[in-house]
Design brief:
heterodimer; A: alpha+beta; six-stranded antiparallel beta sheet; four-stranded antiparallel beta sheet; B: about 170 residues; alpha/beta; Glutaredoxin; elongated
Chain lengths: ~625, ~170
């Protein structure tokens, strides 16, 4: 029953897309500057139907309708309601439906919110966006249909992978999808802009809020994923340079560059083609990431079931997208004669873009290189954190310095009148850095540089609050947060303590300043898992602080899986992080204890970073 | 000039898409199953203590050699260590420990705390040697016979079953 409704709605949506494309192309022929009401209505209907379609899949998960293969493979009747619902998008088929929802809703909203831009430009955007929607609808219907039926009906489902049964992972995919699928709308707009020659600053105005929306959500999506990795994967790290993590970071770099170059296009009417390239690149990278993850080429925590046919479809789709982008870009490209003064805000924004491109290319190379060597020479290699850390970190230092100076400059032609202040601020940063190094422990050269440059950015952004007659609050908040983010990561990295040892029940072990005592082990039974809960007392001999941490070893029943749950105590100064794992046929448990300073501030910095973007969105809305 | 740039950009994208296409039809999971039954020649490993090298000759008198890749920073290595200690009591086998991307002081501390099961100890500071053995994560272990043929490969920590398995193989002699 639900299967029929779902399939029917998918089919109707395909039909609606065709109608929209057809009537849009018809609408181009009319000479007035109005888009017919019918197009609005059809577009609204399309959004409504796809949402209803998604809700029918959600209800299939809620009532545990195992006649649908997707529900059978990813749910279980004993699962808590919350995870039944989040299971809807925790799998390949359901998440593709989420893709299409975002494509469709963005398409409708773009149509509604851009009424003061030329008709042709809006209509072409709608047509291209609907071509994308069609591509994904066909993909869903013929290859990855969440409403496929299984016969005979199984009585029970296989269950959702336990590590996905987590609140953070329930919201991580939707956030991330709004981010990178949202970038589709400025892909379509950029194509439309090339086709209709709508290149004035109006184009920048029409897409800047969409770039902001996708950037804010992409940032939050990456954050939630990192927090999840931090407490769930049990290594105590939050970023592993896993290829799939990289896949979410690549569009982020492109979006961040775009966010900045749009300023130049809007204010100075230059860098048009560069901005277009960034628009096209962002969504292309998003689809590339999807291809890498869904085709099963990459192996990582995010692996979906491997299916070459699936990969082939996305690859064809991706190729067509790239082909079309390159074609229109090449026929419309005119060498620009932008006059940009080397000492001006424009130049500093361009510098930001160069850095973003540098990071993008570095991460892209690191991600693709193993795939290339494997395909071309059968040579299996892996590119890990040492590569990224050694290439990216030194460059971050220079980047932060430019990021601090850039906003102080003026458009068109700048004069450094405040050089004295910059020097004072820089000396302040030096003093604070050496105070940290002196009071705590010596730092390595690169950590010193990272901390100095981040403090420099923090101080200079902070003084921006008072300096100008008209302050740019969103920008200051975001830059300040980014400074703090790097600062906290730097300190966290330097002053983290890690202990690794084996302990049995009742045993006490003294390591450096700490005393560890495994006081108790308890077996608890829950609805979908049982857990061995350890009670570990940790006393700090230097400060006489005693704290109790309770790590768990969980045994999930559907599917039967063992997971290790870290016990984390967080306060404003540090996180205490402890994982416990059983040792095969032994009474000993392996304990991994970490003390991680200022951990919570890393998360807070990212939240305020995206809050800056949100504020900017709010301000733009108010100005309109 | 513009034409050249345009066509190279187009070619680059075609190349990338081509590689993606080739990768689609490949098995993504790294598989070293084929290693079993192969002979490992040209072993050359740097001693942990000094700059001397171990080669095939040094191991040719052993009936069986178990090559174990470990590091002090690797938590599962701690888990398997008691099993290696147990195995070191066996007569017919010598254990070669390859200390993987580790600091010397930490490695020594590890052995001091948990015991040293290794008959030979070598280092692989940058992890290059281990790649030649088809290692992609540690701990891993490779069981060789006296002709340097790989009999079995163990990925992940050696558990009790693996230990029994190895004992069964080497006690046949």
């Amino acid at each position: 029953m639900l299967s029929n409704i779902g399939n029917f709605l998918l089919f109707i949506n395909i039909l609606l897309s065709f109608i929209i494309i057809y009537s849009s192309l018809n609408c181009l022929k009319s000479s007035n500057n109005l888009i017919s009401k019918n197009i609005y209505r059809t577009s609204l209907l399309q959004s409504t139907f796809i949402i209803v379609c998604f809700f029918s899949l959600i209800s299939a998960f809620i009532v545990s309708d195992f006649s649908l293969i997707t529900v059978y493979q990813n749910s279980h009747s004993l699962k808590p309601l919350f995870y039944k619902i989040s299971g809807t998008w925790g799998n390949h088929e359901g998440s593709l439906l989420l893709w299409v929802i975002i494509l469709t809703i963005f398409s409708f909203l773009f149509l509604v919110f851009n009424k003061n831009h030329p008709k042709n430009y809006r209509v072409y955007t709608l047509v291209i966006q609907n071509l994308l929607i069609l591509g994904f609808l066909f993909f869903i219907l013929f290859n990855s249909n969440p409403f496929s039926v299984i016969k005979p009906f199984p009585k029970e489902g296989l269950g959702l992978n336990p590590i996905l049964q987590d609140p953070a992972l329930a919201i991580h995919p939707p956030l991330l999808y709004i981010g990178f699928v949202g970038s589709s709308i400025y892909f379509s707009a950029a194509m439309a802009s090339l086709i209709t020659n709508y290149s004035a600053s109006g184009f920048a105005q029409s897409i800047k809020n969409w770039v902001l929306v996708s950037w804010v959500f992409q940032t939050l999506g990456i954050l939630v994923g990192s927090i999840w990795a931090y407490y769930e994967l049990g290594w105590g790290g939050f970023w592993f340079w896993d290829p799939v993590e990289n896949a979410s970071l690549l569009p982020w770099f492109a979006m961040t560059a775009l966010l900045h170059s749009l300023l130049v296009l809007e204010k100075r009417n230059s860098l048009y083609f560069w901005t277009i390239i960034l628009c096209l690149l962002t969504f292309t990278l998003s689809v590339t990431g999807t291809f890498l993850v869904r085709s099963g080429i990459l192996n990582s925590v995010h692996t979906f079931a491997n299916d070459p046919a699936r990969g082939l479809y996305i690859l064809i789709f991706l190729s067509l997208m790239i082909l079309a982008s390159i074609y229109f870009l090449f026929i419309k490209y005119k060498p620009s004669h932008d006059q940009i003064n080397s000492n001006s805000k424009e130049t500093f924004i361009l510098i930001n873009n160069w850095f973003m491109m540098f990071y993008l290319i570095t991460v892209l190379l690191g991600t693709l290189y193993p795939i290339f060597t494997d395909a071309l020479s059968d040579n299996k290699i892996s590119v890990g954190p040492p590569f990224y850390n050694s290439v990216i970190i030194p460059i971050v230092v220079v980047f932060l310095l430019f990021m601090a100076i850039g906003p102080q400059t003026k458009w068109i032609k700048n004069k450094f009148t405040n050089l004295k202040y910059l020097l004072i601020m820089f000396s302040g940063a030096l003093i604070i850095n050496f105070a940290i190094a002196y009071f705590f422990r010596s730092l390595s050269l690169i950590s010193n540089l990272i901390i100095i440059s981040s403090i420099f950015l923090i101080i200079s952004s902070f003084f921006d609050f008072f300096r100008k007659p008209r302050i740019n609050l969103p920008r200051i908040i975001s830059h300040l947060s980014f400074g703090f983010l790097i600062f906290f990561i730097g300190l966290n990295h330097n002053f983290s303590v890690e202990k690794d040892f084996n302990l049995k029940l009742g045993e006490t072990k003294k390591i450096d300043n700490y005393n560890f005592y495994l006081q108790d082990l308890k077996l608890n039974q829950y609805s979908n898992y049982k857990a061995v809960v350890g009670k570990l007392q940790i006393s700090n001999l230097a400060t006489n602080e005693i704290r109790t941490l309770k790590p768990e070893i969980r045994i999930y029943n559907n599917p039967e899986t063992l997971t290790y749950e870290a016990s984390i105590q967080t306060n404003f100064f540090r996180d205490y992080y402890l994982t416990m794992s059983n040792i095969d046929r032994s009474e000993y448990y392996n304990i991994k204890f970490q003390e991680k300073p200022l951990m919570i501030w890393i998360w807070i910095s990212v939240i305020t970073l995206s809050f800056g973007g949100f504020l900017s969105l709010f301000r733009n809305a108010k100005n309109n | 000039m513009q034409k050249i740039i345009k066509s190279s950009i187009a070619l680059l994208f075609i190349f990338i898409i081509g590689v993606f296409f080739v990768s689609l039809n490949k098995n993504p999971s790294y598989d070293t199953k084929n290693l079993t039954g192969k002979e490992i020649i040209n072993i050359k490993l740097e001693s942990f203590e000094n700059n001397e090298f171990f080669t095939n000759k040094d191991f040719s008198d052993n009936k069986y050699t178990l090559i174990n890749f470990w590091a002090s920073w690797c938590a599962p290595c701690r888990i398997e260590h008691p099993n290696l200690m147990e195995l070191s009591k066996e007569q017919n086998i010598k254990i070669l420990g390859i200390n993987f991307k580790d600091r010397k002081a930490n490695a020594l501390k590890f052995l001091e705390d948990l015991g040293n099961p290794y008959d030979y100890l070598v280092k692989d500071v940058n992890g290059k040697q281990s790649v030649n053995f088809g290692i992609y994560g540690i701990p891993e272990s490779i069981l060789l016979n006296n002709k340097f043929v790989v009999i079995k490969k163990f990925i992940g920590p050696l558990n009790m079953d693996d230990l029994e398995n190895i004992k069964r193989i080497i006690r046949v002699l």
